[in-house]
Task: inverse folding
């Protein structure tokens, strides 16, 4: 039964059993043993002569009907994952920029520029002439500039390219992986994965790197910057995380997915006096808006809105019987929510025209109807409180305090404008290095366990941890995002964190906000006059599952950061692709992937990598 280290989740798994509701863990078990051709990446179904498969033991068949080898199939499948992940991030980004443009055209309702300083700073960085122009006019030009990035056809400078350290950029130019337009790279990748186009695994993987770089340094980075500009740059704040944030006497609304646009309106509408009055008339004491997954991370970082859980907890939240509405936007939403919601009184409401689910009520959110839709959604949730069966309610008590909101800008308040104190601490060894522990949950591993085991090992070795996505939520639930002296208080890292009053694990946001980590890495490299690959940095996604995670991992390696994957990517069916990604690529990009399911071993890989980088960088 266990499969989770999170007690709240275990309690709800038991309730699910009692209520006879299958969850992700049950379905995973039904799927096992999973297809070994699929696990190795040696199946291909892209054309209708297939599906084809390659025998991993060297027996026939060794080629698909068209003649494709295991190398082609594995590389092509990997590239398709990168392209899908990059498309998800970048389409999210596009929606935000389009929304911003509408804001400037004054057609969007009730949105404002939350951070004018950031607007001016990005305008300067991107070369927009600000003289005599209103914020709105500058914002419009910025939106136009960023929108052009999606459809740009030829390689060249993109607006935020000056953030890339000189040596890294020169390397990308030499390797011809400087991204062109975001859409162009994704379409190029999809074209190459059509039958009979690119069948050379090196060429396919090179395009994968270029596409992933377009995600990290362009699409995701624009999404982060524009969300900050519209809704505010995150600053440290205290909040609570885990299923125990749901309230037995309040209307509980969960906002789940990745898009901050809708959640901002929903928060505002749930605070309307008329809505609070309506909730009381329905017998509730108030309205409790909570987040889930990365929409949750966005609201947590900017507003301190409580967060009910990470990817594997979305079904469990409904199973508490205490959720009046599960509102979803895009990405990482389990299609099972429709069936589960029917077993309770929960309204399952989808708000994106591109994310439709059986059993969901569609209430589309767009720039023309933002507040009206948000109002209707909150009202539907409030009125649904009357339908709650109190006898079916079981809310676990677990919720943990967490300090969140460490944007790059917030870090300047602690480490100095140029991160001087961070650099000094790295040089003296007070902090040995920095590791990004990010990414999803996956029922293939015990829920949250690998995240926590790796983080604890890294802290014990005085490695500062930055975290995003569902990994950040795992850390929050385990009390790692607090300033309390804990088991790691003996180390030099801990002493520094106590002195600065920051947690040793810094929550930096949602999946797209991994771009914040790139920016920090670039700033450190520039300050130390080296490439990112020379820094004592590493990344790991201990429980990853999504295509976005493949794209993130690839742009992280492409940026020069050693990256350890905790669940096995589907590349092992091609010894060539495996060796390119885990060995050969290091001599080209200065970084490589490693695959290590054991979290203690994974932490060891990171620790020795960081030690080696320290020796080279800091030994006179
Ligand atoms: Fe089979 Fe080739 Fe078609 Fe893939 S592209 S399904 S390997 S025939
Ligand atoms: S939500 S991509 S499960 S981190 Fe960003 Fe979590 Fe992974 Fe989705």
Result:
């Amino acid at each position: 039964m266990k499969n989770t280290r999170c007690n709240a989740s275990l309690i709800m798994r038991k309730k699910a059993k009692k209520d006879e509701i299958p969850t992700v863990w049950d379905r995973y078990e039904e799927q096992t043993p999973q297809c070994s051709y699929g696990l190795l990446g040696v199946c291909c179904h892209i054309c209708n002569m297939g599906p084809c498969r390659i025998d991993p033991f060297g027996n026939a068949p060794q080629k698909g009907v068209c003649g494709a080898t295991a190398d082609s199939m594995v590389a092509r499948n990997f590239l398709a994952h990168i392209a899908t992940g990059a498309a998800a991030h970048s389409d999210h980004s596009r929606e935000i920029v389009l929304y911003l443009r509408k804001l400037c055209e004054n057609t969007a309702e009730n949105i404002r520029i939350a951070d004018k300083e950031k607007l001016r700073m990005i305008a300067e960085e991107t070369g927009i002439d600000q003289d005599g122009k209103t914020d709105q006019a500058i914002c419009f030009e910025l939106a136009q500039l960023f929108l052009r990035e999606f459809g740009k056809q030829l390689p060249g400078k993109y607006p935020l390219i000056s953030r890339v350290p000189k040596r890294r950029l020169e390397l990308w130019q030499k390797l011809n992986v400087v991204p062109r337009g975001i859409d162009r790279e994704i379409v190029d990748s999809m074209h190459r994965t059509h039958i009979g186009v690119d069948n050379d695994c090196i060429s396919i993987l090179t395009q994968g790197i270029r596409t992933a770089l377009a995600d990290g340094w362009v699409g995701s980075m624009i999404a982060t910057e524009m969300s900050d500009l519209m809704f505010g740059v995150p600053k440290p704040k205290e909040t609570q995380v885990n299923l125990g944030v749901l309230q037995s006497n309040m209307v509980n609304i969960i906002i789940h997915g990745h898009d901050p646009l809708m959640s901002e309106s929903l928060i505002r509408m749930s605070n309307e006096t008329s809505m609070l009055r309506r909730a009381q008339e329905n017998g509730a004491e108030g309205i409790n808006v909570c987040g889930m997954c990365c929409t949750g991370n966005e609201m947590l970082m900017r507003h301190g809105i409580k967060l009910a859980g990470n990817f594997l907890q979305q079904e469990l939240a409904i199973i508490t019987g205490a959720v009046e509405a599960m509102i979803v936007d895009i990405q990482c939403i389990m299609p099972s929510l429709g069936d589960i919601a029917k077993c309770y009184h929960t309204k399952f409401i989808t708000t994106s025209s591109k994310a439709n689910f059986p059993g969901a009520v569609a209430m589309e959110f767009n720039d023309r109807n933002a507040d009206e839709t948000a109002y209707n959604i909150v009202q539907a949730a409030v009125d649904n409180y009357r339908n709650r069966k109190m006898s079916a309610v079981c809310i676990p008590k677990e919720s943990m305090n967490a300090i969140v909101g460490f944007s790059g800008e917030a870090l300047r308040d602690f480490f100095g404008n140029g991160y001087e104190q961070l650099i000094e601490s790295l040089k003296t060894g007070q902090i040995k290095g920095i590791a990004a522990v990010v990414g999803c949950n996956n029922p293939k591993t015990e829920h949250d366990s690998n995240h926590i085991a790796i983080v604890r090992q890294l802290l014990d070795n005085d490695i500062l941890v930055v975290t995003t996505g569902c990994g950040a939520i795992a850390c929050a639930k385990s009390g790692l995002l607090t300033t309390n002296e804990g088991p790691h208080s003996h180390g030099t890292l801990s002493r520094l964190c106590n002195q600065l009053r920051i947690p040793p694990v810094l929550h930096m946001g949602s999946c797209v906000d991994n771009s914040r980590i790139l920016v920090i890495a670039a700033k450190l490299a520039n300050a130390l006059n080296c490439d990112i690959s020379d820094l004592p940095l590493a990344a790991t996604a201990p429980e990853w599952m999504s295509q976005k995670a493949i794209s993130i991992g690839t742009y992280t390696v492409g940026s020069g950061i050693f990256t350890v994957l905790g669940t096995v990517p589907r590349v092992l069916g091609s010894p060539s692709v495996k060796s390119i990604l885990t060995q050969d690529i290091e001599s080209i990009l200065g970084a490589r992937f490693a695959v290590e399911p054991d979290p203690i071993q994974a932490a060891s890989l990171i620790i020795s990598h960081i030690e080696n980088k320290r020796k080279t960088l800091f030994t006179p």
Observations:
- The pocket of iron/sulfur cluster (ligand 1) is lined by residues 44-47, 49-52, 64-66, 68, 195 (CB under 6 Å).
- The mean pLDDT is 95.
- The first helix runs from residue 7 to 18.
